[in-house]
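Question (not urgent): is this output format expected?
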Amino acid sequence: MRAIQITAFGGPEILIPTELPEPAAADGEQVFDVVAAGINYADTHQTEDSYLAKQQLPLIPGGEVVVRDASGQRLLGLVGAGGYAQRVAADPARFLPIPDSVSDGQALASLVQGVTAWHLLRTSTHLQEGETVVVHAGAGGVGTLAIQLAKRWGAGRVIATASSEDKRALTLELGADVALDSRTPDLKAALREANGGRGVDVVLEMTGGTVFDQSLDALAPLGRLAVFGMAGRAPGTAVEPSKLMARSTAVIGFWLMHIATRPELMSAALTDLFTLISDGDLRPIVGETYSLETVIDAHRALLDRSSVGKLVLDPWS
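Got this back:
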């Protein structure tokens, strides 16, 4: 089979297609054809070995896949690694059926990004009706869905940030009330100004560094900042407990792997997301589809922030 297998950690340049033996199924596993795989920002960390979970070589990147079973049913699931390949060996219990009304790209947008957006708002920050929500990287996979979900669940105001005019226009189209340039030097002042001079209630943050610092400073009393990524690869920021106490604010970490270990939490989010998509009430933004030969370009687009929406890999094209 054809796949991307890396034997050394590094940047996009290491993503070279190769011929590999068919995967062998361990006890309780089956070998599935990969119909499509998700390309995530976390994959760029995986290939660098710079994320929370340490990786081992050799490695086939990619943690989310759409597969097809013997009956032809499309299934969606997390596999940890092995997604950038034509076939994968996995436990069938990892997968959930995809409704016919949901496309492969929409399903992949729902898994990592959709479940993350759903639980950031529902479980991590406990969004309340009327609150102001800041969505950083609003044109990305998580951001585009978080904007829509926040508005649907009663946010009084949604403030999105994005790095280009086209991306900011997309966030407004999806329901954001204000779209700010993410490169604004005084982000704290810009967020407060966009909220009528008041602090904001909820921030979804995945960059780190000064974006984290200024977002934390922009919180209103009882505000919550949820961290779900470190795209800026900036050094960690120390948070003084007294600073949190001074305005009763909270910093909450989120890693999807902890949701993945709780099947009921995964199922609740995906069932709701699939229903919303099928009913036309949620619009996943599916970006470009890449082949094994061009997946290097997908990683470059993620790293230079030129990508929009959910990126998809077709290992058979």
